[in-house]
Amino acid sequence: MADLRTNFAGIRSPNPFWLASAPPTDKEYNVVRAFEAGWGGVVWKTLGEDPPIVNVSSRYGAVGWGGQRIAGFNNIELITDRPLQVNLDEIRRVKRNWPDRAVVVSIMVPCTEDAWKKILPQVEDTGCDGIELNFGCPHGMSERNMGAAVGQVPEYVQMVAAWCKHYSKLPVIVKLTPNITDILKPARAALAGGADAVSLINTVMSITAVNLDLMAPEPTVDGQGSHGGYCGPAVKPIALRMVGDIARDPEMHNLPISGIGGVSTWRDAAEFIALGAGNVQVCTAAMHRGFRIVEDMIDGLSNWMDSKGYAAIADFQGRAVKNYVHWGDLNLNFKTIAQIDQDKCIKCGLCHIACEDTSHQSIAALRVDGKRRYEVIEEECVGCNLCAHVCPVENCITMVPQPATKPKLVWANHPNNPSYVPEAAE
Amino acid sequence: MTDIAAGRLPPDLLAANFSDAHPPLNPHEAVVEASRCYFCYDAPCMEACPTGIDIPGFIKKIGTGNLRGSALKILEQNIFGGSCARVCPTEILCEGACVRMAEEERPVRIGALQRRATDWLMDNDPTPFHRAPATGKRVAVVGGGPAGIACAHRLALKGHDVTVFEARPKSGGLNEYGIAAYKLPDDFAQRELDFILSVGGITIENGQALGRDLDIHTLQRAFDAVFLGIGLSGVRALALEGETLAGVRNAVDFIAELRQTGDKGTLPVGRRVVVIGGGNTAIDAATQARRLGAEDVTIVYRRGASEMSATGDEQDWAQTNGVRIRHWATPHRLLGSAGHVTGVEFMRTKADATGRAMPTGETFTLDADMVLKAVGQVFVADPLHSNGGLALGVEDGRIAVDAERRTSLPKVFAGGDCVAGADLTVSAVQDGKLAAEAIHRQLMG
Ligand SMILES: Cc1cc2nc3c(=O)[nH]c(=O)nc-3n(C[C@H](O)[C@H](O)[C@H](O)COP(=O)(O)OP(=O)(O)OC[C@H]3O[C@@H](n4cnc5c(N)ncnc54)[C@H](O)[C@@H]3O)c2cc1C
Ligand SMILES: Cc1cc2nc3c(=O)[nH]c(=O)nc-3n(C[C@H](O)[C@H](O)[C@H](O)COP(=O)(O)O)c2cc1C
Ligand code: SF4
Predict the structure, then answer these.
(1) Angle in degrees, 0-180, between the axes of helices B55-64 and B67-77, rounded to the nearest 10
(2) CB contact under 8 A, A346 and B103
(3) pLDDT tens digit string along A6-37?
(4) What is the residue with the minimal CA distance to atom 53 of ligand 1?
(5) Do A346 and B99 touch (CB under 8 A)?
(6) Cα–chain-centroid distance for residue B112?
């Protein structure tokens, strides 16, 4: 049995699965149910100043795909809509009753030192394990100069992080917004401000759909819509990239990263951790199917780690980081070619039409004795993987790496590179 | 004592037994099922559909919510898309060829999806057809079954005027008189016919029989072209002693009566029924007899299960309905008492070297109150006689046609069950469509 315990920026939890700050962590009732189900920790739904904000009715939009629900999810909710003291009392009780679980409190107050100075001791007094600064909420709060409005300005990120370090002894996690061109800027700013960790991503600014009857963006509120924050499986690739960028940045000095965005299974979690995250946070997957999903996350991760011989999370954490390189470091002499397993082929023709219409005309559509047969034209195949992706049959089309015939060649040394200067011949 | 009686089952059970055997997909189920379609290139299912419907194309449209476009894509190739969705033996046609069969033996439910789209159109846009400008040409269609009506519709679309001469009081052919009741419940045959005829330009004259009220040469002279879709009007006899006993009936007549009777509780059916034959007619007669309340129904076929022309799915269906199927036996004698059938004596058979059934001499008897004969429908050429002789070429017992469904007589075309090929609704529709295209080319050429 693999050891799933983690120590994230000094915060211990029995497993790396935390619930992200969102409706699943809105109040004691939910959080207790989550802990009963086995979640390792929670980041409490973001607290703010009183009086609490007011939410609209009709809050979520979703993108389905081929009859499957919630490939992507979007919300126009704000931070907690409950009075501060109610939340603080509940947090205190939960932490007291669940000492082995991580209880982190998310906070968003106006960008003034006084506001932070006032709330931080109140939060610390609950006995919680750490705080997360919500600099990510892309709607509603940014219009009040909070959330993403702060997260998009690296100087503010640094300043607020520094206040928090100053007025609190708790570990400070800065939650980053993806609604920015270069994620390293706010990440480095958080580090400079003294943050103990970053977490990312918060939601991506989005409109899930346009209701063509109401002629308004969804979700609609009395016939109108607003942009919201996108999350769920669809944003995982965006989140992985940003996590990877921070993990490999030497200036970040291995600052702990909590990976968030589309984590739905143990495999998603393993990918984030392999790319440098110290743990993961989950929102949409729990909102889709309930807290019980954590059972397979724990079990699946543990079985996978056993099968790979990883005894602890640290054994594989960050293992993929060194292989996440810039394009210019890739080997231009590497070649891979598609191979079709004729016994598995069901003759759907999708590889052919995809390659024929949109790639390199490298899959021949033949009829042999009247039967369909699709064959790779190896000389034409550039190894783009398109056919392997469109093939509906698992392992029917595989990409076969060709034996290396030449040494590794990167773009900097390629003759086609205008700035390449060949070494003078003797 | 022979036991033939009506009302063997309570009315609610009878109603359930003759309602939709395979209820439609609901909108969500349809979208999920549509998403199982891989949208194959050069799709094998399309090749397996006798009418060549663009199956991946119409399924994709269901997925995007474009039901109107989906249905029109179906009807473009097969105007009887609605009934075909219900009656086609898809397991040997489109669904049998679905690549998912190779993958997981669970094809995309093409028939059910086709029904989803066509039902939607009939409910939401009952008059979707637009005719080309009138050409002034007139075509006679003989027979108002799927072949004739498909031909008439395509011709009407192209601007020609069509008169359909139909011998029976109702049109629709076997959709109205032959197909099992639970495949086309709720008067679907007539509703679909009305939908198809909404195109305009088609006049149907019921009660007009070729050979009796009409003559082929007269039609040939009076119209610019003629299409014959007269189906198979004869049935093969057993040619056995006792065939005229009361209680011995042709399966097709039993089914036709059942189809035309609204209150199934008034239909007499035997307590013990023996059905002789191995095709879909035998399956349908036996299953419907069971569903009317017959206690004991046995199909007897002279060869094995794999030689039956009824598909495996049809055989399973009959068995699921409590019909027993006995193989390798051929009727030898019909037994009777007081003018009424009481049983059938069968002789066991076995395959000879070429696979034909040879009698073994060994016999057994099945008691029966009713015997339904389903040993084949045959083409009857009599209506094609004119001026004292056969007006056009007949080959192997069906009207001879070329690839364009042209007969040996100029301007006269034929299709459906009365020509060679699979005796299926969908094949009849394809014949009618091909003939209409050929007629159109000839008229406009
Ligand atoms: C019991 C039974 C069950 C079947 N079940 C299925 C099934 O589940 N699925 C399937 O695909 N196929 C099934 N079939 C076959 C299918 O019904 C036929 O292949 C199809 O109806 C053929 O169409 P058609 O237009 O050629 O002939 P028909 O449907 O037979 O239509 C011919 C029409 O011509 C009329 N007619 C005949 N002679 C004359 C004349 N002299 N003058 C004027 N009009 C005339 C007839 O009254 C009839 O209306 C079944 C057949 C039977 C008998
Ligand atoms: C309805 C909803 C409300 C959210 N509210 C907050 C919030 O109050 N504070 C915060 O930091 N993030 C909030 N988030 C963002 C999530 O914590 C998380 O970063 C995001 O959903 C990505 O993770 P996922 O793909 O697992 O859902 C919210 C998300 C959703 C769906
Ligand atoms: S689940 Fe539906 S009904 Fe209930 S609060 Fe949410 S939106 Fe409203």
Answers:
(1) 160
(2) yes
(3) 999 999 999 999 999 999 999 999 999 999 99
(4) B178
(5) yes
(6) 18
